[in-house]
Write a structure and sequence with these properties.
By secondary structure, the chain is mainly β. The protein is built from one helix and ten strands. The strands form two sheets. Strands 1, 2, 3, 6, 7, 8, 9 and 10 form an eight-stranded antiparallel beta sheet that branches. A two-stranded antiparallel sheet has the order 4-5. A hairpin with a 6-residue loop joins strand 1 and strand 2. It is globular.
Length: about 150
């Protein structure tokens, strides 16, 4: 028997600065939630007496990658409104990803910068929207609630 699970029931929460009391708000109708990644560039340290291969060290700072959250697009929904506002405000937003993990959850938190929000309106298929984010902080991961969501 395997312990493998699907991403079903995954949640993505985004900080809404514009509420009377700012708070994390869950985005609805998600179909794809990427997980935070970051990479460090390499700094070449080769010199005139380097033999064989060039030598490198990791750069001291990481750069978060960009990722796409894909969702069903519902015009004027709370998620649509929040995504449009977040695209235009230009500041980092806290996020929380909740993954169902057996009888509990696993939570990933950090900060993202919303880079773009695009909406699609095809004639004979569902409407979709994509929220492009850039991970801009080290993600923290920990066990969440027992019993899921």
């Amino acid at each position: 028997m395997s312990d493998v699970e699907t991403g079903h029931l995954t949640e993505f929460w985004l900080w809404d600065w514009t509420l009377g009391t700012p708070a994390l708000v869950e985005l609805g109708e998600l179909t794809e939630v990427p997980l935070p990644e970051g990479t460090a560039d390499l700094v070449e340290t080769s010199h005139m007496k380097t033999i064989g291969f060039k030598s490198f060290i990791n750069a001291p700072l990481k750069d978060g990658e960009e990722a796409d959250l894909v969702m069903n697009y519902i015009p004027g929904s709370p998620s649509d409104i929040l995504c449009r506002k977040a695209k235009n405000d230009g500041r980092p937003h806290a996020f929380k990803i909740v993954l169902v993990n057996g009888s509990g959850t696993w939570e990933i938190t950090g900060d993202v910068l919303v880079r773009n929000y695009t909406r699609s309106n095809p004639m004979e298929d569902r409407r979709t929207a994509t929220l492009r984010v850039k991970w801009v902080s080290e993600a923290a991961e920990a066990a969440g609630a027992v019993g899921g969501g």
